[in-house]
Design brief:
The protein is of the alpha/beta class. The chain contains eleven helices and nine strands. Helix 2 packs across helix 3.
């Protein structure tokens, strides 16, 4: 496996991202980066990003939630952010991502954690919850899902999937900007482009949409069905806070609310003014939702 590593110089002077890097080595000598911010004695919040973002997406929320007394960990998935990037699209699979994040999770020896997940952060993070429910105190799900290949994907998702596999140059920063309500400034767009000096670094970002199970025989579909069976019995608090302007995941919150025991009594809400990457649009509101959730545990 050929592994690419983004030069540190690409991450200098990023706006509102002052966090010291932390690394663990997993899998085939892959270096995985994560932010670890806030008091070590504080209860843990794990913020997991998706496609094609990285922990920079959570910069405001990390700062706010940590200032409220909680320890925040935000990993960069393999292929994203400051983490290593296998160079071939064939190096990536749903199952392999689960294995990578499980190894990271166990190396950190996580316990009593609350997961905040969005996009692929849910497809991977909820698999961690289903594998280790005893290590989680609760879950907050935003604009995400856990697909089993049943049903028909939305037209918006199918269009995104086709675009991701055919566009000659994969414009990461502009993709993020196009999926927010807020018009991101050039320096923010550049920060989302920072992990990728050129197209050769984007194999993970490009292939991710094709890894979402859209049939029941696709990698991850059967495992996700089994994960739903575990999550259905998850009695700890499970809150949804989807946004109101996301054509890809809009309405998917109903699956969590209907099927997970711990979601039955939670004050679910649709957050107004947020696109798919609602962390950019409504980060103050999301931070407060997390803080209130933690206080109620």
């Amino acid at each position: 496996m050929k592994i690419l590593r983004t030069p540190d110089s690409r991450f200098q002077n990023l706006p509102d991202y002052p966090f010291e890097p932390n690394y663990v080595t997993i899998g085939d000598n892959l270096r995985l980066h994560y932010v670890d911010h806030g008091p070590r004695e504080g209860q843990l919040v794990i913020m997991m990003h998706g496609e094609p973002s990285w922990s920079f997406l959570y910069r405001h929320m990390i700062t706010t939630v940590a200032a409220a007394g909680y320890r925040v960990i935000a990993p960069d998935l393999i292929g994203f952010g400051k983490s290593d990037k296998p160079a071939e699209t064939s190096d990536y699979s749903y199952s392999r991502h689960v294995e990578w994040m499980t190894e990271w999770f166990m190396k950190l020896d996580v316990s009593d954690a609350v997961l905040f997940c969005q996009d692929w952060g849910g497809l991977l993070g909820l698999r961690l919850v289903s594998s280790f429910p005893e290590r989680f105190a609760g879950v907050i799900a935003a604009n995400t899902g856990l697909p089993t290949g049943e049903g028909t994907p939305s037209e918006a998702f199918l269009a995104w999937q086709k675009y991701s596999q055919t566009v000659p140059e994969f414009p990461v920063g502009n993709i993020i900007n196009g999926a927010t309500v807020t018009d991101l400034s050039p320096d923010i767009i550049a920060a989302y482009d920072a992990p990728y000096p050129n197209e050769s670094y984007k194999a993970g970002a490009r292939i991710f949409p094709a890894l979402v199970p859209t049939s029941q025989v696709q990698d991850g579909a059967v495992e996700n069905q089994k994960a739903w069976e575990v999550l259905a019995q998850f009695e700890k608090p499970f809150l949804t806070c989807f946004s109101d302007e996301d054509p890809v995941t809009g309405g998917d919150e109903k699956h969590f609310k209907r099927n997970i025991q711990g979601a039955k009594t939670q004050p679910h809400e649709i957050v107004e003014g947020g696109g798919h990457f609602l962390q950019e649009d409504v980060h103050a509101e999301l931070s407060q939702i997390i803080i209130d959730f933690m206080k109620a545990l």
